[in-house]
Amino acid sequence: MRRKLAAGNWKMNGLSTDMGEVAALPTGLGVDVLICPPATLIDRMVRDPDTFVQVGGQDCHPNPNGAHTGDISAQMVADAGASHVILGHSERRQDHGETDALVRSKIEAAWSVSLVAVLCIGETEAQYQAGETLDVLRTQLAGSLPDGAAPGNLVIAYEPVWAIGTGLVPTMAEIESVHGFIRAELATRFGTDTADGIRLLYGGSVKPSNADEIFAVPDVDGALVGGASLKAADFGAIMMALDAAAKAISV
Ligand code: PEP
Asked: Which tens digits make up the pLDDT trace of 43-84?
């Protein structure tokens, strides 16, 4: 059975004074918890004796080192103590022109230092309106996923671009059908056992108020949460909703 994962993407938010938000998260739940703070906080979060969370980066360069001012390599993310790295987030694709080929090379770099890649895929609003969602996802998966994907090195987050930070969320039927599609695509390429083990997160305006219904959707193994991961009260409530969903499955 896939263990549920609550992942927080702090984006360009968070100072040392915000560490208390992580320390205040509920403990003892039967779900994995990952926080991806800005790179400046990875080491501090990893070392904090008050936190139990796994810590991830938000990006990495495909090369191990070199003349790339302002970039951070996968090796550096791992060296700081992170276990995961978010790759292919739509804000990176939009703000930095990241292509599927580049994302693929970043995933290879992440895997070379044993980081788990959290690959983000999702359609824009125009693509959604045009009914192109599944075509877009198929292309992103084919272009950005290297060979060798496995449950231990990959998490996939389905994040419709139009749902990120907008308060909009697809219908539960849409999320179910997209997650089923992603798993089927993974099965075609990597085999059923591998596909069945890879966790699929939903991301885009997940809040305490909608977490229960999202986590009840088949094939949703957790969430990648942006804005609502910044405050312990909100993210803690989402973690507890995920824990309740996990318990509902196991009875
Ligand atoms: C994200 O950017 O990964 C995200 C899901 O953001 P939000 O939860 O704020 O929509």
From this structure: 999 999 888 999 999 999 999 999 999 999 999 999 999 999
Tens digit of each residue's pLDDT (9 = 90 or more) over 73-89: 999 999 999 999 999 99
Tell me the CATH class for 5-250.
alpha beta
Atom of ligand 1 nearest to the CA of 90: 2
Distance CA 128, CA 164 (A): 14
Catalytic residues: 89, 159
CA 245 and chain centroid, separation: 18
Interatomic CA distance for residues 179 and 234, integer angstroms: 24
Task: Name which of 171, 184, 95 is nearest 134 in CA terms.
Answer: 184
Compute and round to an integer the Cα radius of gyration of the chain. Answer: 17
What atom in ligand 1 is closest to the CA of residue 205? 10
- CB of 53 closer than 6 angstroms to any ligand 1 atom: no
Distance of CA 185 to the CA centre of its chain: 18
Nearest CA to ligand 1 atom 2: 226
